[in-house]
Specification:
The structure holds two protein chains of two kinds. By secondary structure, chain A is mainly α. Chain A has a single domain, classed as MetI-like fold. Chain A contains 13 helices and no strands. In chain A, α3 crosses α8. The longest helix of chain A has about 35 residues, at about 10-40. The longest helix of chain B is centred in the first third of the chain and has 21 residues, at about 1-20. In chain B, α9 (about 210-220) crosses α18 and α18 (about 400-415) runs antiparallel to α19. Chain B is of the alpha/beta class. Chain B folds into two domains: about 45-155 and about 320-385, Periplasmic binding protein-like II (D-Maltodextrin-Binding Protein, domain 2); about 155-320 and about 390-435, D-Maltodextrin-Binding Protein, domain 2. Chain B has helices at about 1-20, 50-70, 80-95, 110-115, 125-130, 135-140, 160-165, 175-190, 210-220, 240-250, 265-275, 285-290, 335-345, 345-355, 370-375, 380, 395, 400-415, 420-435, and strands spanning about 45, 70-75, 100-105, 140, 145, 150-160, 200, 275-285, 300-305, 315-325, 390. The termini of chain B are far apart. The radius of gyration of chain B is 25 Å and the shape is globular. The chains are: A mainly alpha, B alpha/beta. The interface of A and B includes residues 135, 246 and 247 of A.
């Protein structure tokens, strides 16, 4: 009992550690343990039917994956998907957020409606869009025909040239709301005085947007785009439901899942999952590095 | 004192967490061995198909057993697509899950899952076993162990619109070439009337197990072997296979909508049932659905064998169907076997044949007057079992999913490119499958 009352703050720190311990232990179990297991299995020839038979085989799985053309098409698909969808979501997000930032009647209602696509679970919306995309009885082809874009029905989820576009459309529809929400929050942080000053000087609204709004929104946009990019790189559920096994849309996550579960190749699947993890991790570091450099440059 | 108490609480919580996740505190359940007598008040869990009709019928079938034995059955929904269902089952079984007692498994899975399934041969009376089709019982017997009992059988058939064939006085096509011609004629003529969306032939073209089924039927109808030769060598790059795929890939955009490349069974049925197609390849049990009260084509549909590959070809119909199996890790084996005997018995199968036109696995039921009165088409289906083929799951074994995936991916690619470079793609496929089955030591 001698050390009990050494210093109060030290004790506080120590007991707080004990209070956080259950959380840390839980996290280690539910996040750390699977991660380490996956990293371990990536170096073995494990098969899901009997994991105890796994033997260490070094970099064999990575060699197999890197020489698999399906892996490289999944990498290409994932980056194409991420680039196009995040770009579109950002542009649409800015436009919608600017509109919602203005005062008009029923704004609260419109704001709520805009977020509906985001609130629907991906599985449900992918199914929903699957039906709308149907080439014979889908509503989308009726609309396309009504507008007069084409007279023959489009095979949205089957035609090799359309299938990636179809996936991107659903993703943009679904995740633009979250982008809008983040940008709207950023817009509301911009001091009103800036706009008032611009108004007094009689600056054209377009110029105001590029000279005032956009620069002040930059950090918010950066964060929003990082979050979306990391999310988009891991895309799984949408593609899994809408167009599984289609070589034009298979993503890195779907590739890993396919090896892990459909083929039961735990070793190869784990290696693919580890590669995806490494890619996401390194992109995070690049973003953080660039962000820091930018912040340092600005303060300078 | 306080810090010690907090420390104690923290450690206790941590230990609790760890032991909870490690399963130390999971409630100890009383287990029951396969030899023990039946108990009451047990809760069994089983999978019973995810589709509407299948599930509804299952609920009805289970009810009687529940009342008779005083036990309860939880029906667990699983994905509709075979590849996904299999992947899920393999996860459960690999984890030795006790949560599921009875699995509804596809006709091609017994050899894949046999290691995890209980041998039922000593618990089911001989006369009950021999009442089923012999070929299914054989299929479900792996290394002498009967690992599953047949619940219903399936066979691939061609559905056609009787009214449309009559209208243009055309015959039911006997070969794929005839089917192509007939489709073109009716489709062109119908599109000039109100039916602007009319198509000729619908099949399962989505890159999934369904395409493997269709593909093997095409190849076999032209006389090409089913992936493997008898000596275990892969043999896909044959002249017959090329001929078959040439005909098939000419359909896309011509008599089959381009969207067929992403159709599973249900998508395709939607097109046929909304009166937008002349022919449909599907399973025999779809009869009940296309002739349901709310179907636009009720009473207008005929059923027949799938066409031959050319005049020298043969009719080939893929066998399907579902079996019930008991997990080795189940804690309610005696009850599970009792339920399986109830569900696969002649009485229950007859009820399901009458109410939902499920195909029984008891040959005797195909001459049952009550069933034939209600479903005269059963008489036409019965001979199809003669010309039926099986997927080579038994020969391929554990790698079947991988082989099937390579097969349907290549087929999908050939169809999407409308038959470009068939020979080169078949050769690549041949090499890939050989590599999967016998990895060369590179």
């Amino acid at each position: 009992m001698k050390t009990v009352k050494s210093t109060l703050s030290y004790e506080r720190q120590k007991s707080s550690l004990f209070f956080v311990a259950p959380l840390i232990v839980t996290l280690l179990i539910i996040a750390g343990f699977p991660l380490l297991t996956t990293l371990y299995y990536a170096f073995t020839d494990a098969h899901l039917s009997d994991l105890s038979q796994a033997k260490f085989i070094g970099l064999g799985n990575y060699k197999k994956i890197l020489s698999d053309s399906n892996w490289w098409s999944s990498v290409y698909n994932t980056f194409l998907f991420t680039l196009v969808s995040v770009l579109l979501e950002t542009i649409l997000g800015i436009i919608i957020a600017l509109a919602l930032n203005k005062h008009f009647r029923g704004r609260g209602l419109v704001r709520a409606i805009v977020f509906i696509p985001w609130a629907i679970p991906t599985i449900v919306s992918a199914r929903l869009w699957g039906w709308m995309y149907h080439d014979v009885y889908g509503i989308l082809n009726e609309i396309v025909k009504f507008v007069g874009l084409t007279d023959h029905p489009l095979a949205w989820t089957a035609s090799p040239n359309l299938v990636m576009i179809s996936v991107i459309i659903v993703d943009v529809w679904k995740t633009t709301p979250i982008m809008t929400m983040m940008i709207l929050a950023g817009l509301q942080l911009i001091p009103q005085e800036c706009y008032e000053a611009a108004k007094i000087d009689g600056i054209h609204p377009v110029r105001v947007f590029f000279r005032v709004t956009l620069p002040l929104l930059k950090s918010t946009l950066l964060v929003a785009m990082i979050l979306r990019t990391l999310d988009a790189l891991r895309v799984f559920d949408l593609i899994y439901v809408l167009t599984p096994n289609n070589s034009r849309t298979i993503s890195m996550s779907v590739y890993a899942h396919q090896n892990l579960f459909t083929f039961q190749e735990t070793g190869i699947g784990s290696a693919a999952a580890s590669l995806l993890f490494l890619i996401v991790l390194s992109i995070t570091f690049i973003y953080l590095f660039v962000g820091k450099k930018m912040a340092a440059y600005e303060s300078h | 004192m306080v810090p010690i108490i907090t420390r104690g609480i923290a450690i206790a919580t941590a230990v609790l967490c760890v032991s909870y996740f490690a399963g130390v505190f999971s409630p100890s359940r009383k287990t029951n061995d396969i030899h023990d007598p039946m108990r009451k008040g047990i809760e069994l869990s089983m999978t019973c198909g995810g589709k509407g009709k299948q599930f509804e019928e299952c609920v009805k079938s289970v009810k009687e057993w529940e009342e008779k034995t005083g036990n309860k059955v939880n029906l667990v929904s699983v994905p509709a697509e075979a590849n996904e269902k299999l992947a899920l089952y393999q996860q459960f079984l690999a984890a030795k899950s006790k949560n599921l007692d009875i699995y509804l498994i596809d006709v091609i899975w017994p050899s894949l899952l046999a290691n995890h399934l209980e041998d039922l041969s000593n618990f089911i009376p001989e006369e009950e076993k021999s009442a089923h089709f012999e070929h299914i019982i054989q299929n479900n017997t792996v290394n002498g162990a009967l690992v599953a009992m047949p619940l219903y059988t399936e066979v691939g058939v061609l559905y056609y619109r009787k009214d449309l064939l009559e209208k243009y006085s055309l015959n039911v096509p006997q070969t794929w070439e005839e089917l192509t011609e007939t489709s073109l004629k009716i489709q062109t003529a119908e599109r000039k009337t109100q039916k602007k969306k009319m198509w000729g032939y619908i099949f399962q073209g989505k890159a999934a197990e369904g395409l493997t089924v269709n593909g093997l039927e095409w190849l076999a109808s032209y006389g090409s072997p089913l992936i493997l030769l008898e000596n275990g060598k892969v043999s896909l790059n044959t002249t017959q296979a090329k001929k078959a795929l040439k005909v098939v890939s000419s359909w896309i955009g011509r008599i089959s909508p381009e969207g067929v490349l992403n159709y599973n069974e249900e998508d395709g049925r939607g097109v046929f049932q909304s009166s937008n197609a002349v022919f449909l390849r599907s399973w025999a049990s779809v009869w009940g659905l296309v002739n349901a009260q709310d179907s636009q084509i009720k009473g207008l549909v005929g059923i027949t064998a799938l066409p031959k590959g050319g005049v020298d070809g043969k009719h080939t119909n893929m066998l399907g169907g579902q079996q019930l199996a008991v997990s080795k890790y189940s804690e309610h084996k005696a009850e599970a076997i009792s339920l399986i005997r109830h569900l696969t018995g002649a009485k229950e199968q007859k009820r399901k044949a009458l109410s939902a036109s499920f195909l029984p696995t008891h040959p005797a039921l195909y001459s049952d007057t009550e069933i034939l009165d209600k479903h005269p088409h059963f008489a036409e289906i019965y001979p199809l079992f003669e010309s039926s083929i099986m997927r080579p799951a038994r020969q391929i074994g554990l790698k079947y999913s991988q082989v099937s995936k390579e097969f349907f991916m290549t087929l999908h690619e050939i169809l999407a490119k409308k038959g470009e470079k068939i020979e080169g793609k078949l050769q690549d496929l041949n090499n890939k499958i050989s590599e999967i089955l016998e990895p060369s030591s590179k």
